[in-house]
Design brief:
With 198 residues, this protein is mainly α. It has a single domain, classed as Serine Threonine Protein Phosphatase 5, Tetratricopeptide repeat (Alpha Horseshoe). The protein has 8 helices and no strands. It starts with a helix and ends with a helix.
Length: 198
C-alpha cells in the first residue's frame, strides 16, 4: 500500500505520540494512536531506528499493557507474519502466550526473539553507522544473555522471565530515542567543529 506524504506524516506522528504515551504509562491513549496509524498504513515500520518495530507490534504491546491479551495476541501474530525481523513482536507474543498458559510456545517465541536481538545487536554494532550509540554500556545485551542462560537451564522463574521481557521492551523503546539523540549530538559537534576550522 502506497500512502501520500501527508498520510505518512500523520502515521509517523501517531506512532511517536503513541510511543510517548506507552512509555509514560498510558497504554489506552497509546492504543488509540497506534490504531489510527494502522488504519492509514497497516505495513508501517518505525524508521526512526534500525530496530524495525511495526505498527502491529505497537498495537499488541499497548493491548498487552492494558491486560487485553486476546487482542494483543491477534496483533502480535499479525506483526510476526508481516515483519519477520521484528524481534519485539516475538518476545511480546511469547509473553502473551505464557500468560495465557501456553508456556511451551511462549518460551519458544521469547527465546527466538532474544536470539534475534542478540544477532541484531551484533549486526548494528559492526555494520550500522549509528551502532555504537545503541546500548553503549551493554545492560540490554547483558539482560538478554542472562535470560538465554536462564532459559537453557532446567528450571527457571516465569515471573522473572516475564518481568525481564517487559523491561526489555520498555528499555529498547527508550533506547530508540537515546541512540538517535546521541547520534544527532555527535553530528552537531562535528559540524560545529568543522565550521570553526573553516
Amino acid at each position: 500500500m502506497v500512502i501520500s506524504g501527508c498520510a505518512a506524516f500523520q502515521v509517523g506522528g501517531d506512532i511517536q505520540r503513541g510511543r510517548k504515551a506507552l512509555l509514560y504509562g498510558d497504554p489506552k491513549v497509546a492504543l488509540a494512536h497506534f490504531q489510527r496509524a494502522a488504519e492509514l498504513d497497516p505495513d508501517y515500520v518505525n524508521n526512526l531506528s534500525p530496530l524495525g518495530v511495526g505498527v502491529w507490534t505497537y498495537i499488541g504491546r499497548a493491548n498487552y499493557t492494558t491486560g487485553n491479551l486476546a487482542d494483543a495476541r491477534k496483533a502480535l501474530e499479525r506483526a510476526r507474519s508481516r515483519h519477520e525481523d521484528d524481534q519485539l513482536a516475538k518476545i511480546y507474543l511469547g509473553l502473551v502466550l505464557a500468560r495465557n498458559g501456553d508456556r511451551d510456545s511462549g518460551l519458544r517465541e521469547i527465546e527466538t526473539g532474544l536470539r534475534g536481538l542478540t544477532g541484531w545487536f551484533d549486526y548494528i554494532e559492526q555494520y550500522h553507522p549509528d551502532g555504537r550509540f545503541w546500548d553503549p554500556g551493554r545492560p540490554i545485551r547483558k539482560e538478554i544473555q542472562k535470560n538465554l542462560a536462564m532459559i537453557s537451564g532446567k528450571e527457571f522463574s516465569w515471573p522473572e522471565l516475564i518481568s525481564s521481557g517487559e523491561w526489555l521492551g520498555r528499555t529498547l523503546e527508550e533506547e530508540i530515542d537515546k541512540a538517535r539523540k546521541d547520534a544527532m549530538e555527535e553530528r552537531k559537534q562535528h559540524q560545529d567543529g568543522d565550521s570553526q576550522t573553516d
